[in-house]
């Protein structure tokens, strides 16, 4: 189980980005972290995976525990070796390497693994990657690159996968496909998933529990089905009006509904 | 014709060594985007270390090699640890500047321990001559050529087909991505510098064997830099070809125009190539998707 207690993160020692975030990811669960731009979602993921260090960020208070031991302050490599793998935002493929080489590097830290079997597993989830396996990854389409970075993370047999905005800039059909694969991977490999999303509708539909962040804090959390019914969530994240219809911008009122959590 | 054959042969021999040293240069650039201008001086220092074992202590050839190579690896690692590790996260320019002044330090170290005069000539490879038509090749340079080519092949094979080689190519693409996959970038960089040290040292030994061990070796070693640029900074294969090309040009120009013109000619070729092919012949083009 992954547990964050009142985590506070500062960049370069002065910029306070997270102001006491607490959340939990049970073993085998899919949990969503929602919120608008700049809410601190990515920072939260980076605090967990340790990649914060490369950006002069630091966990200054609170603790991050995984399976009972503290992992904040550890190097990203050590954290990855414990089975927490982050899939970074923006489809970060190793551009000049081909698809298979990308995947092989993803499995680099697994000791005595059956590489062929692992590759087959990834190709089973993403059949498209198999036909592309000798192509230079930098030239793949956006959807293919997203599949590649997720496949690369799967190669490491993660216990927890931290997925940062997998839907960013992708066509709705591909988003559906990717979310289906996340659910399948979670069910079959028993990997917990913490997913950061702006696409709240998609995220709420596949997760069992969700947290909503704003200004570096968790402002709302609950089972995803409940949150999907929450008036505020509907209004601010799903773009629905009170009646549950799509909002018509012709009738939009020129005052904002007050968010009740503020 | 006879003269031309001799010149071409000599050029290829030297070129192979430039290529070998250039591989080390490429390796460091690829993995950390640092242009290591001290590569020529690593060559000098490595060659001198070998000389100490072989010429100074009069050890057996293979024993000297066996002792020199770990020292060379260590030299690379130490340079990275002491001068560049503390600069991680600083602008690249400061790292590159450090390598420029590092070369002066390395030269200083060499002259401090071994003096500024050329060291006593030692034979590394069996002396002899081989007639190829009308061209006479010395076995010395043949050995040097063969060894350089073999080592380059081994290195290229290593980058292409081994796990560690693959991770080095990965590090070249992005440090943060590699860290997110649990691969220690620092460890890989350390190994890269070690290998670069070994490549430079082997180059130093081969050059020293034919030209004598002297401070001027470092300037010849610097020719590896245009070789790497012409071949394309990211490509070990390009470095090999660039090295051969530079060797040929240098040798032909100094043969026909005059000895002093050889080295400048290689730099002129570098400028011309950069004008028309800024990525070199085998360099990676920046991937831009529209």
Quick recap of the structure?
By secondary structure, chain A is an alpha/beta fold. Chain A has helices spanning 41-49, 76-81, 99-106, 115-125, 127-131, 142-154, 172-189, 200-206, 224-229, 231-238; strands at residues 2-11, 15-25, 30-35, 57-66, 69-70, 84-87, 160-164, 192-197, 209-214, 217-223.
Structural features:
heterodimer, A: 262 residues, alpha/beta, Rossmann fold, six-stranded mixed sheet, 10 helices, B: 290 residues, mainly alpha, 2 strands, globular
Verbal overview:
- The complex is a heterodimer of chains A (262) and B (290).
- Chain A is an alpha/beta fold.
- Chain A has a single domain (2-229), classed as Rossmann fold, CATH 3.40.50.300.
- Chain A has helices at 41-49, 76-81, 99-106, 115-125, 127-131, 142-154, 172-189, 200-206, 224-229, 231-238, and strands spanning 2-11, 15-25, 30-35, 57-66, 69-70, 84-87, 160-164, 192-197, 209-214, 217-223.
- The model of chain A has no long low-confidence stretch (mean pLDDT 88).
- Chain A is globular and about 55 Å long.
- In chain A, the strands form two sheets. Chain A has a six-stranded mixed β-sheet with strand order 6-7-8-3-9-10, with helices on both faces.
- In chain A, 35% of the residues lie in helices and 26% in strands.
- Chain B is mainly α and 290 residues long.
- Chain B is built from twelve helices and two strands; from the N terminus they run ααααββαααααααα.
- Chain B has a two-stranded antiparallel ribbon with strand order 1-2.
- Classes of the chains: A alpha/beta (262), B mainly alpha (290).
- At the A-B interface, helix 2, strand 6 and helix 3 of A face helix 6 and helix 7 of B.
